[in-house]
User: What shape does this take?
Amino acid sequence: MVDRTVLAGARVVLPTGVVEGGRVTVEGGRIAASAPQERPTLDLTGHWIVPGFVDVHVHGGGGASFSAGTAEEALTAIRTHRAHGTTTMVASTVTGDLADLARQAAVLAELTQQGDLAGIHFEGPFISAHRCGAHQPELLRDPDPADVRKLVDAAHGAARMMTLAPELPGGLESVRLLAEHGVIAAVGHTDSTYEATLEAIDAGATVATHLFNAMPSLLHRAPGPIAALLEDERVTVELINDGTHLHPSVLQLAFARAGADRVAFITDAMGAAGMNDGMYPLGPMRVEVKDGVARIADGPTAGSIAGSTLTLDTAFKRAVTVDGLPVQDAVRALSANPARLLGMADRVGSLEEGKDADLVVLDGSYDLAGVMRKGEWLVRPEVR
Ligand SMILES: [Zn+2]
Assistant: This one.
C-alpha cells in the first residue's frame, strides 16, 4: 500500500455525474480503483475535484513564449499554465517566416517527445490578410500544399493542428493533406463564406479556431463561417472565455447550438498570462497589456487584441459563475472534449480508473486550490 494517495470528501466530477463526498485514489501516477474502507490521505471536504484541463491553443505564459525557439522559454510557459490547472497543452506558434517556424517546431517537437507538450499547433502563416488580427500581414502566404507539408515534416510527427483560411488558393487541398497526415485542420483567421466553410469541413476540417474572433460576423442573410462551424457535428469549436473576446450571451448561444460536447475552451494566451500589465513579445511583435487585455503595441496591426492573458482556471470559474454553465459542461469544455479532439481520451480528460492522475482541486468558490499531474502535486492543496 505504498505510494497510494486517497483524496476524499470532495465533490468529484465524473463523466457519469457529480459524486458528493466522493474519493479519488492515485497510485503509480494513475487513477486507481477506490476502496471505501481505506483511510484518506487528504480530506478535501468543501472542495471540487475535476479532471486536469487540456488547452489546444496557447502561445505562452509566465513572460515566455512558445515562439521564442528555446526549450527554456517553452518550459517556463508550460510550468505557468500547469500551475493554473492545465495538465495537457498543445503549443501554438504565430505567423512567421517558414524557416523560423521550422526551427521553432524542432524545439517544440523535442518537448513533445519528452511528454511536456501534447504537440504543436501552427497558427498561420496560411491565413487571410483581411482577418489576420495580431499576425504580421507581410508574412502571410497562401496555403501552398508543398509549404504546408514542409511545416508538418519539420515537426517530426508532433504537428497536431494547423489553423488556415480555407478560401485561399490551395486551401481545400491543404485541408485534405493535413487530414491525411493526421493533423487537425482548423478553420480560422478566415474570410470564408458559409458555403466555402462547409466545403472545408467536407474536405476534413474539424476545428473552428477561436470561433467568432478573426472571422466574418454572423449575419441573418449571410451566416458566414460561424453558422457553418456551429451546425456541423464533425466540428469542435474553440472559445476564448476571458470576458474580453466573447460576451457571455454569445458563448451561451454557441453552447446551445453546438451542444456541450463540441466546445473546447482555450486560452489563446500569450506571454503575459500569469504576469502583470506591461510590454511583452508575441513572435516578432510587441504587445502592451493593460488591465489584463493584450493589444499589439505598434505597426500595421496596432490596437488589435493579441491573444489573451487567460489561464484555464479562470475560464472554469467564469463558465460556472458568469456564464451559468453546469459544472459538468465546464468540465467537458475544459477537459473531456479537447482530450478527445487530440485523440488522448484514453489517457486524460476524465477521472476514470487507469487514466493519468491529472486533476484540479477547486475550493467552494471555484478558485484553484490544487493541481496534480501524473500523480504528483504541482500545487498542493492547503487544507486545514
Ligand atoms: Zn492564437
In short: The chain has two domains: 4-50+350-379, 53-341. Residues 1 and 39 are 11 Å apart (CA to CA).
